[in-house]
Specification:
The chain is α/β, with parallel strands linked by helices and 166 residues long. 29% of the residues lie in helices and 20% in strands. It contains six helices and seven strands. The chain has helices at 16-19, 30-34, 69-76, 89-98, 143-151, 154-165; strands at residues 2-10, 54-57, 81-84, 101-104, 117-121, 126-129, 135-137. Strand 6 (126-129) and strand 7 (135-137) form a beta hairpin. Helix 5 packs across helix 6 (154-165). The chain starts with a strand and ends with a helix. The relative contact order is 0.17.
């Protein structure tokens, strides 16, 4: 799968309350949550985002509470992929459970600048910076996680598996 989009760079230790503040947790509707994505970081941040844009973060992205609303808000904003130096453990699992792709690239995240255009090849584990010509190699999405993504997240995956066993 290929994703091409513009980079929206964020810093280190972006917590789930910055991604989607608690005052917006009155729904699980992806569109509503997406319209408030990163509101705790910068009011109106999401207004710069277009479908298939990509968040590139420093270390420990998604730290804080274990709210599933955070990856739903990112997906609802039209962002299918987050690239970071590292992710908080619970956020990592929640993201894949909700259908959000995360790619951990360590210090290579510094090669991806705000406003750059990226082409992310999830199957090959490559991130091409179309603005600078730099290619960042990362581990391809593990098959178990790809199965979750293909199904649309953990709940649809489990429903599909249960239906197959009947």
């Amino acid at each position: 799968m290929l994703v091409t989009g513009k980079v929206h760079k964020v810093g280190a230790h972006i917590d789930t309350d910055a991604i989607i503040p608690a005052r917006f947790l009155v729904t699980t509707d992806a569109e509503v949550l997406g319209s408030n994505c990163m509101e705790g970081l910068e009011p109106g941040w999401v207004n710069r985002v277009r479908k298939n844009d990509i968040i590139v973060a420093d270390e420990n992205f998604g730290c804080g509470s274990s709210r599933e609303h955070a990856p739903i808000a990112i997906l609802g904003a039209g962002i299918p992929v987050v690239v970071a130096k590292s992710f908080a453990r619970i956020f990592y699992r929640n993201a894949y459970n909700m259908g959000l792709v995360l790619l951990e690239v360590g210090a290579d995240a510094d090669k991806l600048g705000d406003g750059d255009t990226l082409e992310v090849d999830l199957d090959a584990g490559q991130i091409k910076n179309l603005t600078t010509g730099v290619t960042v190699v990362c581990a391809p999405v593990p098959q178990s996680m790809q199965d979750l993504l293909d199904a649309g997240g953990l709940v649809p995956y489990v429903k599909k598996r249960l239906a197959e066993k009947r």
